[in-house]
Protein: Helix-turn-helix domain-containing protein
Amino acid sequence: MAGHDRTISVLKLFTIDRPVWTAEKVAEALEVSVSSAYRYVAILVEAGLLTPARGGSYVLGPAIIQYDRQIQLTDPLLVAARPVMADILRYAPSHSVILLSRMFEDTVLCIDQLVDGTYPTAEVSYARGRPMPLFRGATSKIMLPYLPTRDLRRLHAAHAGEIRDAGLGEGWDEFRKALTEMRRRGYVITYWEIDPERIGIAAPLLEDQKRLLGSLSYVIPKSEQDTAPRLGPLLMAAAREVEVRLAED
Amino acid sequence: MAGHDRTISVLKLFTIDRPVWTAEKVAEALEVSVSSAYRYVAILVEAGLLTPARGGSYVLGPAIIQYDRQIQLTDPLLVAARPVMADILRYAPSHSVILLSRMFEDTVLCIDQLVDGTYPTAEVSYARGRPMPLFRGATSKIMLPYLPTRDLRRLHAAHAGEIRDAGLGEGWDEFRKALTEMRRRGYVITYWEIDPERIGIAAPLLEDQKRLLGSLSYVIPKSEQDTAPRLGPLLMAAAREVEVRLAED
DNA sequence: AAATTTTTCGCGTATAATGCGAATTATGTT
DNA sequence: AACATAATTCGCATTATACGCGAAAAATTT
Structure:
């Protein structure tokens, strides 16, 4: 178990629910001296990861914004997926959204979103950088079968209730069976599990048919229920194309 | 001079020009052992700031994307400025862009960008998170008069040529005089200094009329040359409004 | 201008990071 | 599939460096 850098622990305190911290509060939270808290904060400010706000408080800093742009321009998965996403947009019904997502800390994060031209994105819950539940919605569900068993055991132990409520089985065995079935089919369709008026269709992105990278998904209007099954195989093909692009260069 | 956290130094290696690193290359670059490099990388991966890519290499990770969204939703300056920006968009000629920017490491970073509805943003160089030159363009220039003198001395020593080319004076004294003049007027207008077909108009954002927070600017089409001077005072008023909003709560 | 709070600095001590080399795991090849 | 090679982790002794303390300095408020 790694991950015991004091300075980075400070950064982890800055969450959506608590985005503003003073050095003193940091010292309390991490149980270190105030001088150390100031030292940590100074390092993070120097790196641009934090920036001073009013009243001796600190918030996330400009380096984040710059790094985010760097990801948009250089991230291999993003770069490999983007043209494919643009390509498959034309096969989707209008008012659809295409998502590129990946796991992060027991949640699913939308990494990139493609919407057809004029459509207001606000109506779909998946927003770039917004953590989404791991067991609800096609985008999330399709990732589960490709997780290492130890992760699945831990997840099931911690979230058995959620897993049941998501229709993924009553106990461990049923859970595994549900996952096997998803893996066999190769894609997942869910009906208004996240947004009431939307259907999600998702396929996994894998490295060498094994390690999970993320998922590729359509979010289409409820009214397009008939088109949904056709889009599953289409997404699988697109996902494979992304995988190939990723492997080249 | 603080800022000597080894783990964070690793993060600083990941730039637009060199966005992919292996542990071994990190070890070389920082002149540490490979095991240490692996340790640092593991810490950053655990924090989500890095993520593994193909072939034992690493790239910036999902935490960046999540943090970026957090900034969008919670950053005090951003939150204070956004409604004001929306408000002053209606006074700008069509095909205009409004920018919220701040300094970062001797560059200027666009923090938020507001374009009128249908207009394609690609035609303006200022992109969210893209570092822009510190001495060219109204957005940048208007910040200079509010920098501490020691910063200005350092900048002038390092970039005397750029400063001259930007029309900010031949030597140190002329430079200071140019800055004083900008401060006196309260806003800056520049003509096609960044984009050939654009005029920039910018006003500073200050904390208690002193410390520089950033700048607020219009980017308007070249054809609107006559409107530009009217927009200067308008931006100053808007900037003051942002400052007040920021001070409340 | 005085008082109070916030932030930085200097320093001795002890903790925790470091490099080494070996063990383990992953990857690629015949 | 078995081997060879590379990539990554682990264990440990050493010493560097991050730590807390208290004081000094700076900033903020009264």
